[in-house]
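Putative centrosomal protein of 290 kDa
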Amino acid sequence: MSVLYTHVWLLKIKCFYQEEIKKLKNELQNFDPSFFEEIEDLKYNYKEEVKKNILLEEKLKKLSEQYGIQLTSPSAASEQLEDEEESPVNFPIY
């Protein structure tokens, strides 16, 4: 590969990426700062709810052990619910 060919090739790549950067910057202009603040708020609120959920699951486990109630794990319960929803026997009642 000649030096000139390499130089031309690199210039084409540079132009391509400069154009991509322009497009991405234009896309970002559609989002005002409040959008990003809202995303951060959602992330924070989600983390807090996950913490609460963990605490509630621990309390529920202790209570179920205390009173001898057998509980299925949340993932097993959701899988069971999905299976029931797919069953043709379970029609929604309106």
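thats it. The two ends are 72 Å apart (CA to CA). The mean pLDDT is 85. bye
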